[in-house]
Amino acid sequence: MLNRPDIIRTVTELRAMVSTWRRDGQSIALVPTMGALHDGHLSLMRLAATQADRVVASIFVNPAQFGPGEDFERYPRTEAEDVAKLATVGVDAAFVPHVREMYPEGFATRVHIERLGDVLCGAHRPGHFDGMALIVVKLLTSALPDVAIFGEKDYQQLQIIRRFTADLNIPVRIMGAPIEREADGLALSSRNRYLSPEQRQTAVALSVALRMVRDAVRSGDDPAAASAKAREDILQAGFDAVDYVEVRDPWSLELVTEPGRPARVFGAARLGSTRLIDNWAIE
Questions:
Q1: Whether the Cβ atoms of residue 190 and residue 275 lie closer than 8 Å to each other
Q2: Does one domain contain both 208 and 91?
Q3: How confident is the model at residue 3, as a pLDDT?
Q4: Tens digit of each residue's pLDDT, the chain (283 residues)
Q5: How far apart, in whole angstroms, are the C-alpha atoms of residue 250 and residue 53?
Q6: How many other C-beta atoms can be found within 10 angstroms of the C-beta atom of residue 25?
Q7: Which of 135, 169, 171, 222 has the highest CB neighbour number within 10 Å of its CB?
Q8: Cα separation of 45 and 50, whole Å?
Q9: 173 lies in which domain range?
Q10: Positive or negative CA dihedral for 181, 281, 209, 191?
């Protein structure tokens, strides 16, 4: 029989539960999410269960990381379905706070990460990573986990989190998890549910184009030329706009101009009102 995770609404309740586990000598893993859970999220929960005695999943659609005109209002909120899914992967507690719990009246603090947050999605979504960093800091200092798990689909986010946890001396191990994909290669995303059947067929072109950049650069091709070709291919496949296709260093996120070194190809493109991102390692 599946055990339904405890649903926790306040930081005080979360800290009390974590303190109880700590007294029993148990370790804690945290998996932050915005809900609308899919198999990619559940793979993070399964990984978390191998890393700690107890697993906490947070579900919070964070207003601070959405810009004007973005999809905060329509972002799917599916708490009942999400909690049912968490029960299938052994999550012990679901932290599902209200916006007022995380941002009470008078809240006035911001977190900003230079350089890593200024490129790729940071250049196209001003303020996004500041809002993301703020909520992750709050979640980490509320749950005080031993390890926190984040997916590599949001690879830039993962590197930013690694940076600020080190800079702020937050005592947590940050662990990345591989991208989960559909059979045709499309990276799993909560926003995939926005796509019409026709758009879903088109969407895989992003993954295909980035994979071709990976293969080309591995073979010694110029990263900039391979990226330019991919941008053309994505548009020809039916995307409405390409925010970027770039080959960058996997740690500093600086542009890579020569083949023959570890790198990662990143892409973001818009299909109708849906913005999709993806990336592939170049080893």
A1: no
A2: no
A3: 82
A4: 568 999 999 999 999 999 999 999 999 999 999 999 999 999 999 999 999 999 999 999 999 999 999 999 999 999 999 999 999 999 999 999 999 999 999 999 999 999 999 999 999 999 999 999 999 999 999 999 999 999 999 999 999 999 999 999 999 999 999 999 999 999 999 999 999 999 999 999 999 999 999 999 999 999 999 999 999 999 999 999 999 999 999 999 999 999 999 999 999 999 999 999 999 999 9
A5: 31
A6: 7
A7: 135
A8: 9
A9: 6-177
A10: positive
Whether 81 and 160 map to the same domain: the answer is yes
**Count of C-beta atoms within a 10 Å radius of residue 108:** 5
Q: What is the largest CA-CA distance in the chain?
A: 58
Query: Rounded distance, CA 47 to CA 62, Å?
Result: 24
Contact 233, 205 (CB under 8 A): yes
Same domain, 150 and 14: yes
**Based on the domain organization, do 228 and 128 belong to the same domain?**
no
Taking phi over 0 as left and psi of -120 to 50 as alpha, with beta for the rest, 89 belongs to alpha
Q: Is residue 272 part of a domain?
A: yes
Quick one: CA dihedral 136, 273, 244, 266, positive or negative? positive
State the catalytic residues.
41
Residue 269 counted as domain residue: yes
The reply to whether 69 and 123 lie within a common domain is yes
Angle at 66 between CA 113 and CA 195, to 5 degrees: 125
- Please tell me whether residues 167 and 92 are part of one structural domain: yes
Instruction: Tell me, yes or no, whether 182 lies in a domain.
Output: no
Domain presence at residue 49: yes
249: domain CATH number is 3.30.1300.10
